């Protein structure tokens, strides 16, 4: 009974995450009218890191017992979710509509299935391959529409694809991390590491003052949008995501997290920006989501525990 209750709570958590991340595309595009992608990302993950810092400090004794392999996995997760994914995603939102960019990002399960095969030897069935092919057709349909608007749109498409690949990589490795380590340890380390790397990037590019000054002329609406991104998108949504991910089967978690996002984004894009997605975007998005549905609901045969899982399991055992 308790397991069923946890399952229901996890499902509700993923639906809330989907709504927040769907709104993120529209609110992020709106905030970017007054701030560039790098200052926005630096500010976002600085606030996120500060929120998780108390729990990270409290868990410092556990960190000493973790293996180098686990630390490298956490660093890779931090780079993918706090640096590459947001920077390229926000860059794509400067040119693409929120729904177009979000739909390409939501093709992450396609690449995640392939990465799971590469890293963990999770077998790809014929039904999964069929789903990947159908979803890819949807991505191509959306991409060809956007690419017809010129070179800037082509660059934005590449940005969205890189962001999608980064999030797919995070999805694959974070599932193992959340299963083996306390979720606030994972969220804290990845956020703090990401914030440090982002400030380093700003320093190397000579843009530290630009980052700070970008927030000097924020209006109330801009601050509200920023704190929604920093607190709801990063802290609350990723906490709920980390809670639900180990408790819900992979296919169901991807379905609940990714599918409703486009609907929330389309509604908010119309209400806030006054822009309805085109018929071709709806068609491409529908094809993409159908393919992803087939991909995630294909039956998978249970495989042996990967070397990474074994290492993480040992780390958890030694830290409890």
From TrEMBL:
Q: Which family does it belong to?
A: Belongs to the EamA transporter family.
Q: What is its main location?
A: membrane
Give the stretches traversing the membrane: 41-59, 71-90, 102-120, 129-146, 152-172, 184-203, 223-244, 256-273, 279-295
Q: Which GO terms describe its cellular component?
A: membrane
**Annotated keywords:** Membrane, Transmembrane, Transmembrane helix
* Species name: Ferroacidibacillus organovorans
Specify the EamA domain's residue ranges: 9-143, 158-295
Localization terms from the record: Endomembrane system
Q: Which domain of life is it from?
A: Bacteria
Q: Which Pfam families match?
A: EamA
Classify the protein's membrane topology as the record does: Multi-pass membrane protein
**PANTHER family for the chain:** EAMA DOMAIN-CONTAINING PROTEIN, INNER MEMBRANE TRANSPORTER
Q: Does the keyword Membrane apply?
A: yes
Upper lineage is: Bacteria, Bacillati, Bacillota, Bacilli, Bacillales
SUPFAM superfamilies reported for this sequence: Multidrug resistance efflux transporter EmrE (SSF103481)
Which InterPro entries does the entry mention? Answer: AA-Vitamin_Transporters (IPR050638), EamA_dom (IPR000620), EmrE-like (IPR037185)
- Can you say what this protein is called? EamA domain-containing protein
């Amino acid at each position: 009974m308790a397991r069923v209750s946890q399952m229901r709570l996890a499902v509700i958590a993923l639906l809330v995450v989907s709504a927040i991340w769907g709104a993120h595309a529209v609110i992020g595009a709106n905030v970017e009218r007054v701030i560039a992608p790098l200052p926005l990302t630096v500010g976002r993950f600085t606030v996120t890191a500060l929120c998780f810092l108390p729990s990270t400090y409290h868990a410092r004794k556990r960190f000493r017992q973790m293996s180098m392999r686990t630390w490298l996995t956490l660093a890779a997760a931090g780079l993918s979710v706090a640096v590459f994914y947001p920077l390229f995603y926000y860059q794509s939102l400067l040119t693409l509509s929120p729904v177009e960019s979000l739909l390409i990002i939501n093709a992450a399960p396609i690449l995640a299935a392939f990465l799971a095969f590469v890293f963990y030897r999770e077998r790809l069935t014929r039904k999964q391959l069929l789903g990947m092919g159908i979803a890819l057709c949807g991505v191509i349909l959306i991409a060809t529409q956007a690419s017809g608007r010129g070179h800037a749109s082509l660059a934005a498409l590449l940005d969205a694809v890189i962001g999608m690949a980064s999030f797919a990589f995070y999805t694959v490795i974070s599932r193992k991390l959340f299963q083996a380590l306390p979720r606030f340890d994972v969220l804290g380390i990845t956020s703090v590491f990401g914030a440090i790397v982002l400030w380093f990037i700003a320093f190397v590019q000579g843009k530290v003052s630009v980052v700070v000054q970008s927030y000097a002329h924020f209006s109330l609406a801009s601050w509200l949008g920023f704190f929604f991104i920093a607190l709801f998108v990063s802290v609350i949504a990723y906490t709920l995501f980390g809670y639900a991910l180990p408790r819900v089967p992979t296919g169901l978690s991807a379905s609940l997290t990714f599918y409703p996002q486009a609907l929330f984004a389309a509604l908010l894009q119309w209400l806030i920006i006054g822009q309805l997605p085109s018929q071709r975007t709806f068609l491409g998005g529908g094809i993409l989501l159908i393919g992803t549905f087939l991909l995630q609901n294909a039956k998978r045969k249970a495989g042996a525990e990967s070397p990474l899982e074994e290492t993480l399991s040992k780390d958890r055992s030694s830290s409890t």
